[in-house]
Write a structure and sequence with these properties.
Number of strands of chain B: 10
Structural class of chain A: mainly alpha
Distance between the termini of chain B: 28 Å
Helix content of chain A: 40-55%
Strand order of the largest sheet of chain A: 1-2
Order of helices and strands of chain A: EEHHHHHHH
Order of helices and strands of chain B: EHEHHEEEHEEEHHEEHHHHHH
Shape of chain B: globular
Strand content of chain B: 15-25%
Strand content of chain A: 5-15%
Distance between the termini of chain A: 65 Å
Structural class of chain B: alpha+beta
Largest sheet of chain B: 8 strands, antiparallel
Oligomer: heterodimer
Helix content of chain B: 40-55%
Bound molecules: zinc ion
Largest sheet of chain A: 2 strands, antiparallel
Largest interface: A-B, 78 and 79 residues
Chain lengths: ~180, ~350
């Protein structure tokens, strides 16, 4: 029977993969529920592996950040700084993946043992059942929302309000077309 | 509401290998192109995102009956009910944001809106049904792609708030009841087997930090670098091995120490039928033993569906809703109410 590798007392019932900082290799840890919970690796009732691995992200990115002085990097789309990412373990927008790609890839390698997605790409909504008209509106909508994220970040509230109005308008028109 | 309580499809104790596999679940994380991710989504945008998703997903028929639940106006007990039914996560219940869930009346399909990712699509089934929930989830996802544009990166796949979910965004979990392996202290065999497959095992929690006895969840650890089908096969591959071990152990115990097992099982039923106070963790432990007794055909006249329902009703949200009419009561009083409920449902006095 495995004893908890942290407290050495209770029965280990949770298996956690963590990243060993020295060797940079994944390491299996057998922990009791209390220790797993305490280290923030276990969540209640609906456990998510994301929580479990958050600790790994932090430890890995800390190392990377030192090597590259990456703390100064900030996402120009959403304003997320590298420091914020370190604390939260969450990105602020989809562009963050490119902004921080140098840091992301070693992290992905450690967490997933891979750097690239394998599997089907999504079909574009416009390829099926959508008229060209709607496809164009949809494209505009995405662009408007990106601009809005930037405007909010820059605290340009006038611009943000204008963009919101336009978004509502475009949504309405899409609704008109698709509802027949 | 009372007539639907405890009637979700995954609680029926049906399906393949339902003597060991409680439920199978697949979850897909998706975000909507154009909107900021959760961490940088301003309050106004939360409202806009929720509206956008509600309006778009509203056009898709997910099941015979589906409903949207706005989580913000609900009280704590109502949210807890949804957590216990596995329709929302605990984080989703406890968050403070504009958020909701769209689910069907069977409790099989749930779409969490504005959780850690904009959309968390979940399909849940009773027993071992990995292929079924997998196919159903991707069929729904395909429908949704007709109305929502999901954030997708040509190199990293589906983009998620947390890089631990990126790529397929898929998490497939199988909830197992392994009292035999636990009873004979061989559960580490399971840990070793899944570790070799790069899968994760976790305990299942109730109130506080006490693990609910003998329930283990196995799921894929990685989401990137493998196709959804490969991840499905990884999880599916390890389950038959664990099922064989659990059954072998149960048979061995029945042969070597039938009286010992009967004693344990009947004592558990005795406690459930007689106790005047019962904590949720004790209730789960005793119910776990009784469940084993039912499967080893030591206890007649009790069904797995009844036990699964009691597992659910003993949890704080359901207990306070079903027995106390939605009124929040303190833990000590809950233990008394729980004991009363168990006595009445199991023919105690
Ligand atoms: Zn411990
Ligand atoms: Zn960003």
């Amino acid at each position: 029977m495995n004893k908890c590798q942290k407290c050495q007392k209770a029965r280990a019932t949770v298996l956690v993969t963590d990243i060993d900082l020295a060797s940079h290799k994944p390491q299996q840890l057998h922990l009791c529920e209390d220790c797993a919970r305490e280290t923030g690796m276990a969540a209640a009732l609906s456990p998510s592996a994301a929580e479990m691995l958050k600790a790994s992200i932090l430890s890995v990115t800390e190392k990377e950040s030192k090597a590259r002085s990456a703390q100064r990097i900030m996402c120009e789309h959403c304003g997320l700084t590298y420091q914020e990412f370190r604390v939260k373990g969450r990105f602020g927008c989809t562009a963050c993946y490119d902004t921080f790609s140098e840091l992301v890839e070693p992290l992905l390698e450690k967490v997933h043992g891979a750097r690239e997605h394998k599997g089907e790409a999504p079909r574009k909504p416009s390829n099926k059942r959508k008229t060209t008209n709607v496809a164009e509106f949809e494209k505009e909508l995405v662009e408007l929302r990106r601009k809005l994220t930037r405007a909010v970040k820059a605290e340009d509230y006038e611009d943000a309000a204008r963009l919101r109005d336009r978004i509502t308008e475009v949504e309405r028109r899409i609704g008109e077309v698709t509802d027949g | 509401m009372a007539e639907t309580v405890g009637k979700d499809a995954w609680l029926r104790g049906e399906g393949q290998d339902a003597d060991i596999v409680i439920s199978t679940r697949v979850r897909l994380a998706r975000n909507v192109e154009g909107f900021a991710l959760k961490a940088k989504l301003a309050g106004d945008e939360e409202v806009a995102l929720l509206q956008h998703l509600r309006q778009r997903i509203g056009k898709v028929k997910l099941a015979e009956k589906q409903q949207f639940v706005d989580l913000k106006p609900l009280d704590d007990v109502e949210r807890l009910m949804l957590v216990e039914r596995h329709l929302i996560s605990l984080d989703h219940a406890n968050a403070d944001s504009e958020r909701g869930v769209i689910h069907d009346d069977q409790g099989s399909i749930a779409l969490m809106l504005n959780e850690e990712d904009h959309l968390r699509l979940q399909v849940l089934g009773s027993g071992m049904c990995a292929e079924e929930v997998f196919d159903r989830a991707f069929a729904i996802e395909d429908e949704l792609q007709g109305v929502v544009e999901f954030a997708y990166h040509s190199r990293y796949g589906y983009l998620t708030s947390c890089p631990t979910n990126v790529g397929t965004g898929m998490r497939l979990s199988v909830m197992l009841h392994l009292p035999g392996l636990a009873f004979t202290k061989q559960i580490d065999k399971v840990f070793n087997a899944v570790a070799r497959m790069n899968l994760a095992v976790r305990g299942f929690y109730g109130e506080g930090t006490k693990a609910l006895s003998d329930l283990y969840q196995i799921s894929n650890q990685v989401t990137l670098g493998k196709t959804p089908e490969e991840l499905l096969n990884d999880v599916r591959g390890v389950i038959p091995v664990i099922l064989r071990w659990e059954r072998e152990v149960r048979n061995q115990v029945m042969k070597a120490d039938r009286v010992g097992l009967e004693d344990k099982v009947w004592r558990a039923l005795g406690a459930l039928r007689s106790a005047r106070t019962m904590s949720s963790s004790e209730a789960f432990e005793q119910l776990s033993h009784v469940r084993l007794g039912v499967h080893c055909e030591l206890i007649p006249d009790l069904t797995i569906a009844t036990l699964n329902e009691l597992f659910l009703l003993c949890q704080p949200g359901h207990l306070q809703t079903v027995v106390c009419g939605g009124k929040a009561i303190e833990p000590r009083k809950r233990d008394i109410v729980r004991a009363e409920l168990l006595r009445s449902r199991l023919g105690g006095r």
